[in-house]
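Internal tracking record. Fields below are filled automatically when a chain is submitted to the structure queue. Please do not edit lines marked as system-generated. If the sequence contains nonstandard residues, flag them in the REMARKS field before resubmitting.
Queue: standard
Priority: normal
Entity type: single polypeptide chain
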Amino acid sequence: MRKAYDGLIAVLTVYSAVLCLVMLGVVLVGIFYRYVVGEAISWYDEFAGYILVWLTMYGSVVALAKGKHISFETLVEKLSRGKQRAVDAFGVLCVMSFSIVMLVSGWHLLREMADETAVSIPVVPMAWIYSVMPISGALMVLVGFVQLVRLARGHESSEGARPKAMEEAQ
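SYSTEM-GENERATED OUTPUT FOLLOWS
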């Protein structure tokens, strides 16, 4: 099970990197056409914005899984190990709650926008673009569940960011 989870996070990491490169490519093509060819492409700005949203959402899943989100580590490190785990669990539950809201709201938005298309790219359905919300919400819930299981089993902190030397010192 752990290998499948790590594999999923690795795939999402690569996917996020590819999205970053695609966004860079789209913007460079737009710049090339505007300043070298002398004709502006109508779709590149909108498309780059959509890619940025996808990159942000899938990158957030990767950051959550790797413990790279903003946290108050300085305060938490002063607590006993048991209290650190309780604070970590509370943080995971808060993130999971938000993720569930994002999943449900994203699903409703997806259904509402099913018949709409992108403004400058009419062949692209908005449902495809908004699908990132429920998918990333579900992935964040999965990451949170894995983190809660690891905390319950007494493994490293859910965030994975706390140095082992500090955990061993306490």
